[in-house]
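Reopening this one. Same input as before:
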Amino acid sequence: QVHVVESGGGSVQAGGSLRLSCQASTYTERSSYCMGWFRQAPGKPREGVAVIDYDGDSKYADSVKGRFTISKDNAKNTLYLDMKNLKPEDAAVYYCATDFRYSPFCSRILRVVSGTPVNTDFGYWGPGTQVTVSS
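Same output, byte for byte:
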C-alpha cells in the first residue's frame, strides 16, 4: 500500500504560478515507480497533465506544454509540478497518482497525457488539491 498526499494548491490570478507537491510513502531510493499529475474540472473527466516514468521519461498534455514542469526528488519520494502562466482553464482539482514499475498503472502512464482515458482503478491516488485561477 502506498499513501499519497498532495499539497500546494490555491487561488491565483491568470498568469500566476503555483507549485504542487506530492509525497508518496513506502518507496525507498531503490524503488522503481512511476508518478503523475492529473486534474479534473467540474463536469469533465479526469485527464493526465504531466507524468514521469520509472526511468525519468516525462510527458505532458499539449495544453500545458511549455508552462508546466514535472520533476521528482527520489531521495524524498516527492513529485513536483511547477505551473506557470496559469489560465482559467487550468482550474481543477489536481491529483497525484503512483504505482510500482510493473503495475498496470505504469504500463500505460505515458499514454494518459495523449488522450487515453484515466482509470482510477489502477494506481495509488491522493485526495487531490484545488487549483483556482481567476481571470
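So the earlier flakiness isn't reproducible anymore. For the record, Residues 4 and 24 are 5 Å apart (CA to CA).
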